[in-house]
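User: Could you walk me through two proteins back to back? I'd like the raw sequence and the structure tokens for each, with a short line separating them so I can tell where one ends and the next begins.

Assistant: Of course. Protein one, sequence then structure:
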Amino acid sequence: MKIEAEWMRGGTSKCWVFESGQFGEAETSPDALLPRLFGSPDHRQIDGVGGATSTTSKAMILSRPVGDDVDVEFTFAQVGIEDAAVDWGSNCGNCSAVVGLYAIEKGWVVPTGDVTRIVTRNTNTGQIIIQRVSTPSGALPIVPEAQMPGVPFPGFRVGLGFQDPAGKTTGKLLPTGSASDRITAGGTRWAVSMVDAGAPVVILRAEDLGLDPESYDSWLAGVELQLETLEHIRRQAAVRMGLAATTSEAARAVPKVAIVASPAQSDPDSDVSVMMLSMGKPHPALAITGSIALTLAARTPGTVLNDITGGTLQPILRLRTPAGVIETWNEERDGSLLVGVDRTARTLATTVIHLPEALGSAVDASLANATN
């Protein structure tokens, strides 16, 4: 069997983009199909199209809803690497940036004006994301020129505005009802904040992990030595946030972990230093859905992050990440709160993926319905 797909970069992630309607009726579920397409389980993903990292083993499934105020619906799949599993429990903010661009390139949405507004809905979370794609003179630029931290080459500018993002996964911005909690792991009681906005995130202070706020470049080595403890904290947070019944049942993708501290005195360009963990490893930049949670955490009195940023609401939050400073913004519009960030996106390839014969006759129709 052959499956058409686009290979696209969104922000600091890469994903394979499928249209839901191209999958026919068959017997294999997407939970079996996608790992085989990507070459999992195998840490190299050598016999598939996966990139062998958490930021490059991702898929987006797109559809055009009928009779709705939404232009495009999309479902995100985080495909396991060492394990043949798919996590559907959250969205990817970086990969979300490909949705508006794809819609314009495929003619689903006609560009209007210098900025084209595309209303999208993520089905994993029910989140509405207003995408603003730069279309000067009513068209995509012939050559993309927008730059962003963490990507050496330019792409098309895409602004992502998460509409009223609080509680989309758990029902509450603060799932435990408290801005600050204590979790015991490794024989230590850790002060944490558990926040659900964009994605569920558990936030810790860098100092509590023995990390020096004045030496951000040394964090990576220090974090990697404590991954087991951080995973224990994350799994307990999953239970406390209502994401799993037991720690052993906690999904790998949610909640994410964010380690934060005041910026170094020599760093006047940021408001907070952040290192985020995704799929058990330090993120090379920042999970954008996680940045939405951090933005609302900064606005919420009593959280670990608000203690750093202070009580004054600012329209821009500058986050120091391993890839550079990422700015998030928030604004009130038509009675809704938009929390967002600007990304870039680009189509890398239009291709046909060849599916092994053993699965070729057994592609599950549920993949076509994954956006329902």
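----
Protein two, same layout:
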Amino acid sequence: MEWIGAGSLAAWVWLALAQGFFWRTDVRLPGRTDPERWPPVAVVVPARDEAEVLPVSLPSLLAQKYPGRAEVILVDDGSTDGTGGLARELAARGGLPLTVTAPGEPEPGWTGKLWAVRHGMALVRERGDAEYVLLTDADIAHAPDSLRELVAAAHSADLDLVSQMARLRVVSFWERLIVPAFVYFFAQLYPFRWVNRPGARTAAAAGGCVLLRRAVAERAGVPDSIRHAVIDDVTLARAVQRAGGRIWLGLGDRVESVRPYAGLGTLWRMVSRSAYAQLRHNPLLLAGTVAGLALVYLTPSVALAAGLAAGSATAAALGGAAWAVMAGTYLPMLRYYRQPLWLAPLLPGTALLYLLMTVDSAVQHYRGRGAAWKGRTYGAPGAS
């Protein structure tokens, strides 16, 4: 137990100091100045059965205070709940011009969201003059100056992709337990500081809010080059990076998700639908991930409890110290989400849930169910 506790503490000291300071929440939009000429922007919103959230999110886009020309294109991806009609009703109240279009069912090899994005970007190309495209999910609400600040940041730092991780909804007990940890784990996998370094090898984006320079997107062949991607945001960032584009990722101050995740089941499906795809459907990566989660997140509490039970003060102290470092790195994310700090010591339990979700994702994959999203399944063996 002493060696296990020592190994766990060493792992957490290394993570805290050498993993891009992933736990800090100060990576926000870079310093920005207004361009002399505000470039035209098209906002593309893929939407499938989003009538529940659209009355909050879409008006926030139509109300953008952008000094240049901007338009919104909502792509109704086979909705059965009246999403398209509701969008037209909301647009009638005024604001930016809105186009509602429908692409039909995806062709083989395409995920539904990227098929919708392809249709929206094709309209942008037909209209010709948009220099940037904002890809934003239908559940994302934007502050009135969100588009202006994104474009100013891209202009000031000469960025080809600017992505903000929207602040997710945190109201119910399960949202409090799981949602902040979701962002924390994402930042641990893709430290924002590493992503934002010029010439970085790490690439990532947050799909809910991505401002993309159109010329670079076309050079990268987006979205056709990533048409199969289940985790489309990270794949998009890699495509832009490979095409020589500069990318930036940080936490959002002006973008929030309004989608509710009231129960554990909904959150479980959100994570498990893409967790195994993140591991490239590789059993060895799955085994390594499970072992890593267990070693890093579960052994501190095990070493502490076992040390106390066996009367080993050293094992208990090492395990307790590792647990304390872990909890300490989680505090900034809880503050960002305005959550009680007593949730920090519960992170091992949350990590155990994520471990089980990841295993379940693999089980569903090998049962032929793949990644399910609103009636469609991707990534299962034999699936198109």
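The beta strands are 41-47, 70-76, 98-101, 132-136, 140-142, 161-167, 209-213, 247-257, 371-373, 376-378.

Let me know if you want the two compared in more detail.
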